[in-house]
Every structure is written in structure tokens, then in C-alpha cells.
Amino acid sequence: MALRILPFRQYSDHDVVNMYALKDADILTSTTDTGAGDAGVFVKVHDGNFDNDPVTYQTNSYLGKSDYPFLGTADMYPEVNIKITSSTSGTVPLGMTLYQTAKNDENGEKLLYNPQKQEELQAMLPGQAVPVVTKGIFTLAAAAFDGPIASYAPGNAIIASNNNAGKITGAARGNAKIEHSERVFGHVLGTGTRTSVGPTTDQFVGDYIVVSIDCN
After folding, report:
1. Are the CB atoms for 161 and 86 separated by under 8 Å?
2. What is d(CA 176, CA 188) in angstroms, rounded to the nearest whole number?
3. Which pick of 143, 149, 177, 204 has the fewest CB atoms within 10 Å?
4. Which residues constitute the domain of residue 189?
5. pTM score, whole prediction
């Protein structure tokens, strides 16, 4: 499952932006995949042109074939026009995605036809606006950050990853270039390690960090 956020979190709905859809190239094929379409990816604005219509109709193939006789050339599947994509080094992100964006479930079935399962998997469909949180306290699995857990001592600063788009990096306080940098958008509250108990493998087994972020 393409989730990088553990259940413990604290945030206000007032700090959630529900305006942008994920860029088409970042959308996951399946909820079992992982990548830029995960939940827990730090994102930036890719296309913020509000002169465009708020919603248009896709000509991609999410609904299926569009070249049968008398069907025309469009699938007539609506999508939000303004887009987000993974944040990169040296920038402060818009925020972090709370839901994954995927076409299909783990069985290859389109989530479009099973809205209940879509909610259970915490997924958005291609073209739908993804909730992006800009401020709060979150528990992030190892897939959300790069480098060793030692880089995330309590109090360390949080900046965008230098190596992996959409991830974060921990930076020790005391470095003037970091301490007064506009790139800092959070700090570490604590760390831990999850282990599997019993015969079932923990989905988030491994290191995790608890961070406070404020991208505003």
C-alpha cells in the first residue's frame, strides 16, 4: 500500500488545501505500487494557472477505449486543471499529500467502480483534487524520509531532500546555513522503530519519525 504516513497525526482541516490534482505522470497504476503518487509525499505546485477552466475532461484512457464507432475521441472523465508534483531540493513544499492517487486496487480493478474500497485505501482517483496538509504533527514511515535515523534527532530541522523528490532530510541545528535558511519548514519531535508482532508482518515495520511541519 502506497502510504508513508502512520496513523498518529494532529492537524486542522483549516490547514488542508483541496485544490490541486496530482500531475498525470505521478499517478500510481495500483495501490500496491509506490512512488510520487503515495500518501505522505511532499509536493509543490506544478501548474497553478487559474485562467484555465477549473475542470476539463480527460482524453486519456482511464475510463477505457474511446475509439469505438460513434463514441467520439474523449472519455469525458473530469479532472482538476491545476496540478502538483513532488517537491525538490532547495524549496519549501506546498505541503504533504494525505491520500495516495491511484488507478487500480491490488487486484487490478479500477477504484472508480468501487468507491467504498477507494475510501478504505485512502486513495484519490486520477484527476481528483488531493488533500494537501500544510501544517501539523505527523508520524512518517521510512519511505517518507532519506538518510539514517541518526539524522533525525529530536530538535533537528526538516528540509526537502537533496536526493529524492518528495522526501525530507534531517539537518542538525547550529549550522547557520540551516538555522536561518528559508528552506526549513519543520523539526523532529522524536523517533522510533516498529517491529512485527506475531505471524503478521507490520506494514510499517522499521524506523519512523514524528515531525512538526509548517509550510506556511
Report:
1. no
2. 18
3. 177
4. 5-214
5. 0.90
